[in-house]
Write a structure and sequence with these properties.
The chain has 17 helices and two strands. The protein is mainly α. It has two domains: 391 residues, Up-down Bundle (Growth Hormone, Chain: A); 56 residues. A hairpin with a 6-residue loop joins strand 1 and strand 2. Helix 11 runs parallel beside helix 16. The chain is globular, with a radius of gyration of 22 Å.
Length: 512
């Protein structure tokens, strides 16, 4: 009988796809779940991931109401978003390594409890400072939770066909979570209160905690890497400076030291981190994790897609509400067709297309489709309609982003050793988070400049201001399309041709 490698690398196991006894027996994965519970584990992980992803957009919908209720200024409003991004982005690599050190189940449960507690604190906020502190805590616990969730998925699903299905679903959740957040945030804000946009996380977390406690295995990993303290400090501080610098660019000029100073310091620290990783005995981010061609291509894909997709969520939301006059709920419903296409595309890509065509075709193809959708959006005007002018680009965007996220997440974690699953998963989230921060800052700056340039020499009538907004949105769409075009070129060059090669889980960087 054909045999496949044990994910722990200690002994061969019967092929799970051909031996029914191995499915119902005590076969376990390194991170792991009982194989007979793997689909329930996927549901638990999916709920946790959805909670983290949608939180980035659900709070945006609630911000105007929270600002009115708590009485903070427009200048301080950005900190509600920035506080989360700073702690989440800067602590992800540490969170991933902690999962490898302590155990993924323990970190997953702690992350859920902490995220729920921070959400309750934010929902009960009586002032601006309390809300910002809660958002920072959310980001910190999210940095524990997100890598643990993805690494649990990586170590639970070892069979190739089942792994494809699982990552198709997970990729759809990761890509569509932002749009779900817009819809849910609109419903909660419009019919209840902005505070429920934070309280809703208690429901998600309660379900995931119960399921995780029942289904996941406890215990420490068999191979426990030591913590690279110098590397941790360099990575966390460097990522903090990068995210803070780009976040600051939304309210400060690029020429001000608050912007470029942090970016320069962050770049120097990350360069020092990369140098240190080649010399550390127990590196935070081992080179074996990043030197695989398909894996590094997937990190690049997540980075560029994170930067590019921001345009469709932020600026199209502005367009639908400010130009077409949609309510928050209607705006969320308007994004649902994109979500449906993303789910269909993700599942089809990983189950049917990836094993036949490979990522070198699918990921650049997805980037191209997303870019086409962005260019299509540049035709929107003051009198455009949803069905005739908005729906088509959203469908194309959904198809493209489904291809990118599902394939990139699959290959970013394929073949990774169990001892590195946490930090490898953290790199996926870090790539997307830093890409999103850069996209936020650049697109906001470019859009604001375009609007100001349009109004030069014109009377600031309501129609002129509306047209200036259209110009700013169009500029953002063009630059988002440029991010996707760059993603097409980079991923077409980096990914190996043909279907993904089978990896030995103990030699994840064997195929360079």
């Amino acid at each position: 009988m054909e045999r496949s490698p044990d994910p722990t690398g200690t002994r061969p196991l019967p092929d799970a796809s051909s031996d029914p006894r191995s499915r119902a027996g005590a076969a376990r994965t390194a991170g792991g779940g009982l194989h007979e519970h793997r689909w329930w584990i996927l549901a638990v992980i999916g709920i946790a991931q959805l909670m983290v992803v949608l939180d980035a957009t659900i709070v945006n919908i609630a911000l105007p109401s929270a600002q009115k209720d708590l009485g903070f200024s427009d200048g301080n409003r950005q900190w509600i978003v920035t506080a989360y991004a700073l702690s989440f982005g800067s602590l992800l690599l540490l969170g991933g390594r902690v999962a490898d050190l302590v155990g993924r189940k323990a970190v997953f449960i702690v992350g859920l409890i902490g995220f729920a507690g921070a959400s309750a604190l934010g929902g009960a906020a009586t002032g601006f400072g309390m809300l910002v502190a809660a958002r920072a805590l959310q980001g910190g616990f999210g940095a524990l939770l997100a890598p643990a969730a993805l690494s649990l998925l990586t170590t639970t699903f070892q069979d190739a066909s089942e792994r494809a299905k699982a990552f198709g679903i997970y990729g759809a959740i990761a890509g569509a979570g932002g749009a779900v957040g817009l819809l849910l945030g609109g419903v909660l804000t419009q019919y209840l209160n902005w505070r429920y946009c934070l309280y809703v996380n208690l429901l998600f977390a309660a379900v995931a905690i119960f399921g995780g406690a029942r289904l996941l295995h406890g215990g420490r990993p068999a191979e426990r890497p030591r913590l690279d303290v110098p590397g941790t400090v360099l990575a966390c501080v460097g990522l903090f400076c990068i995210v803070y610098g780009f976040s600051n660019a939304e309210t400060h000029a690029w020429s001000q030291v608050q912007t470029w100073g942090f970016l320069v310091v962050g770049a120097v620290l990350l360069a020092a981190f990369a140098w240190w990783q080649t010399r550390a005995r127990h590196p935070l981010l081992p080179l074996r994790v990043v030197l695989d061609r398909d894996r590094s291509a997937s990190f690049a894909a997540m980075f560029l897609a994170g930067a590019g997709m921001f345009g469709v969520f932020l600026f199209l939301t502005y367009y639908l509400q400010q130009i077409l006059g949609y309510s928050p709920v209607t705006t969320g419903v308007a994004f649902l067709p994109m979500v449906v296409c993303m789910v269909i595309s993700s599942v089809t890509a990983t189950n049917v297309l990836l094993p036949r065509l490979g990522a070198k075709v699918l990921v650049p193809g997805g980037m191209g489709l997303a870019g086409i959708g962005m260019v299509w959006l540049t035709a929107l005007g003051l009198h455009s309609g949803y069905v005739a002018h908005v729906l088509g680009p959203l469908l194309v965007m959904g198809l493209g982003m489904g291809l990118v996220f599902a394939c990139a997440m699959n290959l970013a974690t394929a073949g990774i050793a169990p001892r590195d699953a946490g930090v490898g998963s953290a790199m996926v989230n870090t790539s997307q988070q830093v890409g999103g921060s850069i996209g936020t800052a650049l697109l906001n700056t470019l859009a604001t400049t375009a609007a100001a340039n349009y109004l030069v020499g014109r009377q600031p009538t309501s129609e002129a201001k509306a047209q200036a907004a259209i110009e700013s949105y169009s500029t953002a769409y063009w630059w988002s399309a440029a991010f996707f075009a760059l993603g097409l070129v980079v991923t077409a060059l980096l990914y190996r041709p043909g279907p993904p090669a089978a990896h030995d889980s103990d030699q994840p960087a064997a195929h360079l």
